[in-house]
Amino acid sequence: MARTKPTAAHLALVxxxxxxxxxxxxxxxxxxxxxxxxxxxxTWFEPDSPxxxxxxxxxxxxxxxxxxxxxxxGWTGWxxxxxxxxxxxxxxxxxxxxxxxxxxxxxAGVEKVPTGKSDRAFQAxxxxxxxxxxxxxxxRRDLDETLRAHAAEGGLELPRSPGALPNVFHxxxxxxxxxxxxxxxxxxxxxxxxxALAKAMPDHTExxxxxxxxxxxxxxxxxxxxxxxxxAQGIPGMVRTVETAxxxxxxxxxxxxxxATGALHELMRRSSGEPEILARLxxxxxxxxxxxxxxxxxxxxxxxxxxxxxxxxxxxEPDWAAELGRYISLMHALDVAYPEHPGxxxxxxxx
Length: 351
Description:
This protein is mainly α. The longest helix is centred in the last third of the chain and has 24 residues, at 247-270. The chain starts with 7 loop residues before the first helix and ends in a 14-residue tail after the last helix. It contains 17 helices and no strands. The protein has helices at residues 8-19, 26-34, 54-67, 75-84, 87-101, 103-108, 119-133, 143-153, 171-183, 190-200, 205-220, 234-244, 247-270, 275-282, 285-295, 301-316, 318-337.
């Protein structure tokens, strides 16, 4: 099939990208539009002018720099979809979020999660959890010590984080974690979870006992604290949260979560030359409430899954969502206080 002739708009954007040192083709630009990463070309230009608007050029540069060298666009694409908040892009977001929330089930070959309180349904969920853990390699990740070492290279001594879970992938947490993902809080009591934490954190007996006492006192008052967690309904509940969310609410949640992730990644990169950045970030409660558990994301599918989980939490926990917004303000203040120096490796390639 013969290709159509490039439009004047596509040619103009390619020229503008080239002027900024970014070589792209009209075919690539056309694909970015088809993917929803760029809006309609009728919105690209200044009024009565052939000049590409700055925010369109910035957006195109973001896409070009992110997908270069064969890399996928990752959560940057989600951010762009959420920024436009069109019904079509909301649909794209919903589909992508659900796919990444279900990824552990898909990888394990668990096609359907049985519901209900019958023994048969319970046993089927246990079997599904076992399939999720089969042949799984567990990373040995002590993030706290890694960050302390990173800060020490810059001459900054970070305080140790009391009660920090050294490795969320600790073997003792894998079985209860998988069962929680499939069956939610009803399949995993707080006592079992506390036992797993005691094995993963043998030096924090008092903290775990206090946590158990908090749950017991809440239960006496008629409140199940574990059931209030975003994990309470497992993956099926998370999927329902995304599928039933209003388009605008969903786009707002994804936009905020990806904005926060991008800001954190940029500041973490910059912190090697400005260790005070790391001190300010780690001194806030949201360092433990978000950054460590879902903000510092790896590339690829695991990073997208982390953003998907953040989105679910944003949708169901208004207080947490407000705290994330406050943390974004802190990161913006740090971005202004510690501007990027010309010539810094990676300068100009952040999200």
